[in-house]
Each structure stands twice: as structure tokens, then as C-alpha cells.
Amino acid sequence: MPYDVQTPVYQGPFDLLLHLICRDEIDLWDVSLSSIVDAYVAEIERIGTLDLDVATEFLVVAATLVELKCRRLLPGPDDVELDEELALFEERDLLLARLLECKTFRNAAAAMSRLAAAAADSHPRTAGLEPRFLALTPDLLAGLGPLDLRAAWLSATTPKPAPQVDLDHVAPVRVSVSDVVDELAVSLPGTGRRSFRSITSRLATRLDVIVHFLAVLELYKQGRVELDQLESFGDLTVAWVAGRPAGDGAGQLDRVGTYDG
Amino acid sequence: MADEATRAVEAILMLAEEPVEPQLLAELLELSVARVEELCSRLEAAYAADDRGFVLVRVAGGYRYQSHPDLAPYVERFVLQGQTARLSTAALETLAIVAYRQPVSRAQVAAIRGVNADAVVRTLEQKGYVHQVGHDPGPGQALLYGTTRLFLEKLGLDAIDDLPPLAEFVPGPETVEALERGLGAREA
Amino acid sequence: MADEATRAVEAILMLAEEPVEPQLLAELLELSVARVEELCSRLEAAYAADDRGFVLVRVAGGYRYQSHPDLAPYVERFVLQGQTARLSTAALETLAIVAYRQPVSRAQVAAIRGVNADAVVRTLEQKGYVHQVGHDPGPGQALLYGTTRLFLEKLGLDAIDDLPPLAEFVPGPETVEALERGLGAREA
User: What is the Cα gyration radius of chain C?
Assistant: First the structure.
């Protein structure tokens, strides 16, 4: 008999987002981008081998959050087109609507669970016909064919097929943003200015590149690197801010994950 | 002296295996449905007044005998087998969406929950809580799902309309505010 | 005001599928057998005094609720009305398991379906679709069941080997495990 096993894994991106916002009462804008992304990356790592669709949904929501948050980090509204701003608001409202809908059904599910629990206290009578009436019952097998029997066997015995998605072609995600922040804090001071492309040239997946990009933004936020971009979509130059060698920042490295501002 | 119709209702319900619809009782007893419903209400009240260990309930569109809920501790000692496993959170949430949005496709369920719903819907179908009720007329002809009679029985509901209105479950203003703040729609 | 033990007897008998022995009731309620028999006699008398449409009878060594004999005409009409004219899902699944897995014990059927199969197997036996074909050689000597000639005739089959093959279907681990548990389980 198949049992549903309850695991602590989040039931999708909305679940995780609701958890972050509601249960922890976190204001997503008060916590660092890295902790949001880390939470998502951790979930993707955990579920990545199970279901590609779920992982994709996680990425979509994570990307929306990252985009919303990045707009906050980047300087001045001057260089943001009004249309883009409106599009972003729309995305945010859509996300909000979806979260509310998801939460509504979650509340309904909890109420249904209570109804079911109350109903389970009262057991139905299913004794059925007394033997003396059995002879009266018409031919119970009328209209039944061998295929119906086979179908009945299948419904009686079919276990829940576990979803099997071959994810061999997807490289597992191994780095978190804070890992990369640590890594860059060690490697950057010795090299002066480096282009973002050269930092990420050896990375295998787009997600790794995104994580590195977020790490660079994190360092920028902490005032430990300077960023330079000559043209839109051009390469980004990352320069360690002199006088703040890696050793100094140890205390701060531990605190990746909290913004002061 | 109890009347014959009332006694016949008791006799029939005693050996029915599923809730018996008042329409069927009315036909068998050559009475109006309203009269049957009245008889059943009286029986319910009589059992309650006599403090019986069983109850007559209306569930999934029909009447049936059940053990009195407050005797669950005794009954559970007796019914060791056939206990159904509790549904997972995922299954319950999916069931809630199907219940309130039926007929609904798996894709629609997935859109609301943000995760693929195929495996969960299949499980619910195997357990007999949901079933296919048709096809989406639109392109793709997606299968549409609805809840079953068993679902009503498990929840102790007479009809799907007896579910509390979904509006009751819309998150309160604090939650909405928290979500809005969380997404930066409001300045903290 | 009825006492708790009496109400518990009513609740248990209401959902029992087979006559319940007074010894078992005594054990469940932590009462003496004599006391249980006294409670049941009182209930019998109370139902008779209230002129209920059901009776509490002592049959096959146990107690069970039955429809009152003088209401048989209504019950017959109910039965003929076809409310029970087709096999329930439970019965059909049980029949399929017996057909494909014979010889099989009730415990094995129960293990596969996850619910007690005794009442369903008995119904199928009474209708002549399955019969006892031997004993499990293992400990417990469980009765083993198989399908009958009548079953083959009804399904238009020459031999049991003519059932559609299950070749492409491989039982999952839960089913295998349930089967193994069933083999080890004591025949109920």
C-alpha cells in the first residue's frame, strides 16, 4: 500500500518564498540577496535530481526575486526606463497574486484536513447484505470482461510510480554565493583589476556564473570591490579596493548574508 | 409505535454498503423525497435523544449509519485494519485546488502550486479522491479532474457545496502586508 | 442516559462486518463476558421496545445488527433495485487478485489491498465466484482461495490462463513487500 511520505523538502518555489516571508517574518529587502539565492540554490540542489520542472520553477521565481532586488541595489532610477519599471511592477504583482493564491489553497487544505480528521472519528457501517438476501442479488459479474479484471488488478496493485527524470546532463550545483564571496576575497586582492569574464571563464554552468555575479554584487555592496562597466552589456571590471586585504574582512565574511542598509 | 416507513428506512440503511440517496428511498417506499428527508431527520434526532452509540448522517448525497465520533477510542481498538494513511501536505493542497476549482487540469493545478502536479494527481486518483471528469475543449484537450464521492465521504460532506467558501481562506491583511513588504511593494 | 459501555457496544457492532463475539467485546471494553451479554440483551430489548427497523441478534457465536425480518419486502426491493447489482470496487479488486494470484490466502489479498478482505472474500464465495482450494503448507495453514468454473463462465473464459497477461506490469516494491508480509502474516 503506497504511503505518502512527508519530507521537509519545500513544495516548490512558492512554498519556499512563503516560508521565507511569512514563517520567518523576513523582509526580503532586509536580508541579503545571497541568503535568498542561497536558499533557492540549496533547494535546487536538493530537488535537482528529482524533477526538472520543479527546479525550473525555482529558477524562475529566484530570477524574479534577483531582478527585483538588483533594481534596488543599482544606483539611481535615472537609467531605468519607465516601461521596464512598470514591467517589473507587473511581475512583482503577479508574483504577489500567485503567492496569495497559493496561500489561500494552503489554508483551505488545512481546513479540509481538519474536516477529514473529524470525519475519521466516525466509522461507516459497511457490513452489507445479510446472507439471506444474497441469493436475490442479480448476477454481479454481468457485463464484466477479462479486461475489466485486469484493470482491477492494476488498480489494486499499482504502486505510485516515482517521477523519474534523467538529469545526468544537468551538472549539479555546488557553489553558494557566500562560498564564492570567500573565494573572491582571497583571489582578488593579489590580481588588481580583473574582468568578470575572466573570473567566470572556467565555469561550467550559467548558474555558476550567476552565483559569481551575485557574489561580486555582494562584495560591491560591502564596498570591497569597485565595478566598472564601459558600455551596456560590456564586460565588467572588478577591482579590489586597496587597503582592505582579505585578512581584514574576516569578520565581515562571516556576516555575508546581512545588509546594514 | 414507529411507522412502517421509518422502520423500513432503518432496515435498508442497516445493510446498505454506501450512502443511500433519499431519491432511492423515496422510490422504494413510495413516498416523496421531502417526506423521506423528514423521516431521516427524526431518526437522527431520536438516536441522539436516546444517546445511542451510532449516528445517522447525511454524507455524499445519501444517508448512512456511522459510529458516534465520541466513541472513536473504543472503535479504534476494534478497527485495526483498513486505516488509511494520512495524506501528505502536497496531496492535501492539490486536493484543495481540485475541490474548489473543478473541473481543473493538472497544468492548472501546477500553475497554482508552482510545482508539477502529475504525480500527486495520479496518487489522488489511485486513492479514489479525484477522477477524470472530461476534457478541456481548448487546444491540447487537457484531461480535467474533479473530486469523487469518496472524497465527500472522507470529509463527511453531503455535497461539494458544503465546503467552506474559499473566501474564508484568503490570507488576512497581516499576511498580505507581509507578502507585499516581502516583495518590496511597500516600503518597510 | 446510556452508559459508555453500552454506547461502545453499539458503535462497534455498527461497523463490524461480521458477528462480533462477546469475548472480543469484553476484551475491548474491559468488562466481563457476562456483563457484555447483559448489555447486549438490554439493547435487544430496547430496540424491540422502540420498535426499530433493525434487530440485534446473536448469530454464529457473535452479535450483529440485522434488518427486522418483517421488513424483508422493503429490503428485497432495495436489493433488486440494483443498488448492489454490480460488484463494488473492493470486491472487483479482490476478485482480480484471487484470479491472478491463485491460490491465495485472505491475508495475502488483504496485504495487497491494504484492507481486511474477509467480508469481501466471503461475499465472493457466497456468490460462487471463488472457493477454497487448499491450505497454505506454512505455519498457520491459511486457507487458500481460487476462482471457480462459474467465474470462468461468467467472464467467457475457457481457462484461467486466458486472462489478459500482466506481463508488461511489474509490481513495485510496496506490492512485493506487502505480499511478503502477507505470506508471513497469520490468517485472520
Answer: 20
Query: For chain C, which chains pass the contact test of at least 3 CB pairs under 8 Å?
Result: A, B
Rounded Cα gap, residues A196 and A212, in angstroms: 9
Spatial strand order in the sheet of C104-105: C104-105, C143-147, C130-135
Taken as a whole, chain B contains a residue count of 188
The residue type at A21? I
d(CA B117, CA B91): 9
C-alpha span between C49 and C52 (Å, rounded)? 8
Quick one: DSSP state of residue B132? Answer: E
User: Dihedral, CA atoms, C131, C134, C138, C140, nearest 10 degrees?
Assistant: 60
Task: Please state the pTM of the whole predicted model.
Answer: 0.58
Q: Which of A46, A44, A86, A39 is nearest to A65 (CA)?
A: A39
**Record: contact C11-B68, CB cut-off 8 A:** yes
C-alpha triplet A231, A235, A236: angle, nearest 5°: 95
From the list C79, C93, C164, which residue is nearest A136 (CB)?
Answer: C79
Residues of A in contact with B171 (CB under 8 A): 100, 103-104, 107
Task: Count CB neighbours of C54 within 10 A.
Answer: 20
**Among partner residues B7, B53, B128, which is closest to C71 by beta-carbon distance?**
B7
What contacts B92, CB < 8 A, 6 or more positions away?
A: A109, A110, A112, A113
The Cα A212–Cα A210 span in angstroms is: 5
d(CA A258, CA B113): 30
Q: HSE (CB half, 13 Å, CA atoms) of A210?
A: 17
Residue type, A5: V
Closest residue, chain C, to A125 (C-alpha):
C15
Type of residue found at B9: V
A49-53, A215-219, B145-149: range with lowest mean pLDDT: A49-53
C-alpha B64/C-alpha B19 separation (Å) is: 5
pLDDT digits (tens, 9 = 90+) for A128-186: 777 667 666 666 676 677 888 888 888 777 653 333 333 434 444 456 777 778 878 87
- A chain contacts of residue C67, beta-carbon cutoff 8 Å: 130
